[in-house]
Amino acid sequence: MLKLKGSITISGDKSISHRALIFASLSTGKVKISNLLESDDVMRTLKILKELGIKIIKKKAQWIVYGNGTGGYIQPAQVLDCGNSGTTSRLMMGAVSSNPISCTFIGDNSLSKRSMSRLSIFLEKMGAEIKLTKKDFLPLHIKGDINLIPMEHVMQKASAQVKSAIMLSALNLRGKTRIIERRNTRDHTERLMRYLRINFEKKILSNNSTSIELNGPYEIKPRDIIVASDPSSAAFFIVGALIIPGSKITLKNIALNKSRIAFIDVLKMMGGKISVKKTKTVSGENVGDIKVTYSLLKSLKIKASLSPYLIDEYPILSIAASQAKGVTVMRGLSELRHKESDRIKSIITNLSRIGFKVVSKKDDIHIKGSNKLQIINPKKIKTYGDHRIAMSFIILSLRFKNKLIIDDESCISISYPDFKKHLKKLSTN
User: How far is CA 59 from CA 33, 228, 418, in A?
Assistant: First the structure.
């Protein structure tokens, strides 16, 4: 059986890459971005910013963005195509909403089935005019306004994208915007704002809730940005090394944001031999090296309260669960039904097809693991066009001597174009 050995540097973080481009576009001058993830999703954001009048060029390994200030977007000449990227659509809706321009956003078939009203309700309360398809979906038309009303927003549903979109809108508003989160979400936006010296106030309230207060309008001085490497992308190789006998790998310069590496704690509780060492801070994010050694995993019950911090890692965690002794239970996964595919369905269908005992009960998944299961005849895996499903089952296929046939690997370029190249490097060392 193939082993994973050696060390690699993972590509730039997808969430940070989107935000780096957008904040650079809102600054008052030239910003150099290093280690930008050049995936399909991130390139959608880059192309839309160009349509909005932002000059962006690539010089060697760096991307140079010439910002026009927080109110500097111009009327686009054509529709803004977000492709498959939910982050692009929601963050850019927020960013354009406080500019006096009209924009039409479109997306592919998958993105056009994902809810946009969960953000539009907040922007409409402030005074933006938004027309959604069937009151919830792309295509949508938004008419922005520099005189949107700054106000308090109470977020009942946890969403880092919605929170970030409101914050981006508030940067160009005169007055105080306050966002109250009932449950904490990923804080890449706040970290990047602190690094860029954008003043805002974040307070911890009672019961795990927080408030974020911005007092605009802001002038964002240009500052070069280095994008840390993506922990969600690292997760595939971490699980691969844990489940393939004889494996031992080191992943370098990974973003160690606490809101992004909860999956490592989960894997450690399952018995995974993983060590994490912080090495430095890069553009507001702690980064470090992760060492992983093959381990015998045991099952675990993963609480619903962890779901906001594991939302991108559940597909690969389900692969770890399939190799763990006992029944792993993942609770409170309703958000997985609204990703690039219905991931509850994608996980259960494919694991069942291989021969694992998997069931879903409402929004929970129960996986009975077995590292003794053998595959004689090749099994076809349906990705449903979902990049994380594709990469997860490619990792599991290594365990079965590549007897899983992935129906569509092209979708991997959405988030990790270098995945196969990096996998090959670890496989041949």
Answer: 10, 19, 20
Specify whether 201 is located in the same domain as 278.
no
Whether 287 and 278 have beta carbons less than 8 Å apart is answered as yes
262 and 203 in a common domain: no
Half-sphere exposure of 145 (CA within 13 A, CB side): 13
Question: Which residues are designated catalytic?
Answer: 312
Whether 260 and 391 share a structural domain: yes
First to last CA, the chain: 14
Regarding whether 196 and 95 lie in a shared domain, the answer is yes
Q: Are residues 266 and 304 in the same domain?
A: yes
Looking only at the bridges linking them, the beta strands covering 210-216 and 200-204 are antiparallel
- Integer CA distances (angstroms), 219 to 55, 70, 193, 212, in order: 18, 7, 12, 18
- Asked if the bond preceding 217 is cis, omega within 30° of 0, the reply is yes
State pTM to two decimals.
0.93
Integer-rounded Cα Rg, in Å, for the chain is: 21
Domains contained in the chain, number = 2
pLDDT tens digits for the chain (429 residues)?
789 999 999 999 999 999 999 999 999 999 999 999 999 999 999 999 999 999 999 999 999 999 999 999 999 999 999 999 999 999 999 999 999 999 999 999 999 999 999 999 999 999 999 999 999 999 999 999 999 999 999 998 888 999 999 999 999 999 999 999 998 888 999 999 999 999 999 999 977 789 999 999 999 999 999 999 999 999 999 999 999 999 999 999 999 999 899 999 999 999 999 999 999 999 999 999 999 999 999 999 999 988 888 889 999 999 999 999 999 999 988 887 767 778 999 999 999 999 999 999 888 999 999 999 999 899 999 999 999 999 999 999 999 999 999 999 999 999 999 999 999 999 975
Domain that holds residue 251: 5-11+229-428
Residue 33 maps to a domain: no
Taking the C-alpha atoms of 95, 101, 106 and 112 in order, what is their torsion angle to the nearest 10 degrees?
Answer: 60
Q: Is residue 140, in this structure, part of any structural domain at all?
A: yes
Domain boundary among 152, 184, 219: 219
